[in-house]
Structure formats: C-alpha cells, structure tokens
C-alpha cells in the first residue's frame, strides 16, 4: 500500500509531536532523547516528518553529522540515519518507506557522500544499504546491522573510522541476527 502522507522538513512546532511519535514507536524515551540532543548539539542535518491527511504527524526520520576519518587526515562527510519512527497504529502502510526514500534524496541533494545505519537488514536492504559496503569502516556498532549506502560511488572504498556525535553514547543498540 502506498503511504497516504506528505513528507516535509521538520518545523519548530513539530518538536513535541516528534518526541511523542519516537517514544511510542520505540516504547521508550532513549531515541526521543537522542533526537532532542542531536538537534540541541547542532548535529542534526536532515529531519523529515510524515504528515497524514488532517495534519497529524505520524512519522519522523533523522540524519545527523557522521564524519568518517580516513588516513592522511582525509574526512568523508556522511550521515547517520537514526532514528526512523512511525506511530505504531500507522505502521505497515508504507510511511517508513516514504520517509527513508525522501531522506536519502535529501542527503544526496546536500552533497553527502554516504549514509550509515544500524538496523534490521531486512528493512534497510531494500533502499540499497549493505553490510558489505560498511565492512571497511571501524565503528562502535559492528556486525550485519551496521550498514552503509554510498551516495557518491566509491565513497567508502577506503577504510575509515565513523565518528558518531556524542549523543549516540547514551542509546542502547538493539541486536539483529
Ligand atoms: C521500522 C519502521 C520505521 C517501518 O515503518 P513502516 O511505516 O511500518 O514501514 P513500511 O510500511 O514502509 O514497511 C515497509 C516494509 O518493511 C517491513 N518492516 C517494517 N518494519 C520492519 C522491521 N522492524 N524489520 C523488518 N522489516 C520491517 C514491512 O513488513 C514492509 O515489508 P513489505 O514491503 O515486504 O510488506 C516502523 O515499523 C517503526 O517505527 N518501528 C519501530 C521503531 C523502529 O524499530 N525503527 C527502526 C529502527 S532501525
């Protein structure tokens, strides 16, 4: 089913609604706190919301600054995708997919080289995220859930270390097989 929503950039009045969506989607406050802290720290790059008919906010996706430090002082400008959240009663209707596709487009338009995500491979592979592409990166989140999408072909060919904003330190990471 296609998403019956409009995706647009976050506006200041959206902040409490985003908190509510993210906390309900994850069933805890840690990810909602992460969104607030990334925004407050100036690390948020792209925040999009999904608006249903009638104006209700039903989903959000956030991309934050994620430099990848390579050899010889080389830095690749990437983004971390986290979190992606859809109101529980609206899940399974294509809204997460619409947010992910719009977010990838927005990051590409900003000239970012890559997007990194830690999540369920079954969900993120459909957008082109790959654990194999991320394998050359040193990260605090190793394993198959650690995936990358190159927006500039070959951007992640060289090895590097992903430098997560401090806010991520407070978030427990879910295990994926
Ligand atoms: C994950 C989430 C954002 C997906 O949003 P959504 O609007 O429900 O997703 P869509 O309707 O676009 O689903 C697209 C597909 O992904 C699948 N899918 C949804 N959630 C999934 C999950 N957690 N793991 C694997 N697949 C998932 C759906 O079954 C659907 O598959 P299909 O196209 O083969 O039918 C949403 O379920 C959510 O907010 N979950 C709680 C928070 C969370 O886990 N966020 C992701 C962190 S990595």
Please render the helix and strand layout as text.
Layout: E1 5-9, H1 15-26, H2 30-40, E2 44-52, E3 57-69, E4 75-86, H3 95-109, E5 114-118, H4 121-124, H5 131-134, E6 137-138, E7 146-150, E8 160-162
Helix pairs in contact: 1-2
Coenzyme A is lined by residues 25-26, 83-86, 91-97, 119-120, 122-123.
List keywords for this structure.
eight-stranded mixed sheet, 5 helices, globular, Aminopeptidase, 177 residues, alpha+beta, 26% helix, binds coenzyme A
Task: Describe this entry's structure for a reader.
This protein is an alpha+beta fold and 177 residues long. It has a single domain (5-166), classed as Gcn5-related N-acetyltransferase (GNAT) (Aminopeptidase), CATH 3.40.630. It has helices at 15-26, 30-40, 95-109, 121-124, 131-134, and strands spanning 5-9, 44-52, 57-69, 75-86, 114-118, 137-138, 146-150, 160-162. Strands 1, 2, 3, 4, 5, 6, 7 and 8 form an eight-stranded mixed sheet that branches. The longest helix has 15 residues, at 95-109. The protein is globular, with a radius of gyration of 15 Å. The structure holds coenzyme A. The site of coenzyme A has 17 residues, from helix 1, strand 4, helix 3 and helix 4.
Largest sheet, described in full? 8 strands, mixed
Briefly note the CATH topology name.
Answer: Aminopeptidase
Residue share in helix: 25-40%
Mean pLDDT: 94
- Residue stretches low in confidence (pLDDT < 50, at least 5 long) are none
CATH classification class: Alpha Beta
CATH architecture: 3-Layer(aba) Sandwich
Run of helices and strands: EHHEEEHEHHEEE
Q: Enumerate the distinct ligands.
A: coenzyme A
């Amino acid at each position: 089913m296609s998403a019956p929503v409009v995706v647009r950039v976050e506006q200041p009045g959206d902040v409490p609604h985003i908190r509510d969506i993210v906390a309900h989607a994850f069933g805890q406050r840690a990810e909602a706190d992460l969104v607030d802290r990334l925004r407050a720290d100036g690390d948020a790059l792209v925040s999009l919301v999904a608006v249903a008919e009638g104006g209700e906010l039903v989903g959000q996706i956030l991309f934050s600054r994620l430099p990848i430090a390579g050899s010889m002082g080389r830095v690749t400008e990437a983004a971390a995708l986290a979190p992606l959240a859809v109101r529980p009663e609206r899940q399974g209707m294509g809204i997460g997919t619409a947010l992910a596709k719009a977010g990838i487009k927005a990051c590409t338009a900003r000239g970012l080289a890559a997007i990194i995500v830690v999540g369920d491979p079954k969900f993120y592979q459909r957008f082109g995220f790959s654990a194999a592409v991320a394998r050359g990166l040193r990260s605090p989140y190793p394993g198959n859930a650690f995936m990358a999408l190159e927006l500039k072909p070959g951007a992640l060919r060289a090895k590097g270390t992903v430098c997560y904003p401090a806010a991520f330190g407070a978030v427990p990471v879910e295990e994926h097989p």
